[in-house]
Amino acid sequence: MPILAGQIITAGQLARMQPTPYIGEATAPLTAGTTYQLIPGCSITLATLAPNASYSVIGVFDSAVTTVHATNLMVGRLVVDGAAGTGLAIHAMDTLDQDTVAMVWNGTLPAAGSHTFRLEGVISGTGGAGRFGQYTRLLVTITEVV
Fold it and tell me: CB of 53 within 8 A of CB of 143?
């Protein structure tokens, strides 16, 4: 938002210029299945005041393989207002281990109002087992510039 010389700036304009962070933390592990499921606690609902607010999201997935599988993957994704993001956090299930994998997403919220961000997890095929653990985190930063 450009600020012109002599312009009177409102408190609302200043509030929207400041990036606002939100965090969601896993409240319980998710034993991953073959369909995407919400990782408990990794959902944030927030409200924007103006259209075209931008968002930046960091998803950190605590991925633990509990049964090895040579080709399956543990996959984490972001869903914004019911639509899945394009990037995926991927962890191979070829070793009995626990690792942290992350992904970064960004985009624009075309309308003002309520928006929901959530992290979901899945295993890419049958066989093998894993869980997304308690250290899974969702960090959303909203910047409104209108």
Answer: yes
Measured on CA atoms in the order 79, 80, 85, 88, is the torsion positive or negative?
Answer: negative
Burial class for 144, CB neighbours closer than 10 Å (0-12, 13-18, 19+): buried
pTM of structure: 0.89
Q: Are 39 and 130 in contact, with CB atoms under 8 Å apart?
A: no
Separation of CA 133 from chain center: 15
- Give, in order, the Cα–Cα distances in Å from 9 to each of 19, 50, 112: 17, 16, 20
Mark out the alpha helices in 1-146 (DSSP H runs): 11-17
**Nearest CA-CA partner of 61 in 97, 99, 28:** 99
For 17-37, the pLDDT digits (tens) are: 789 999 999 999 999 999 999
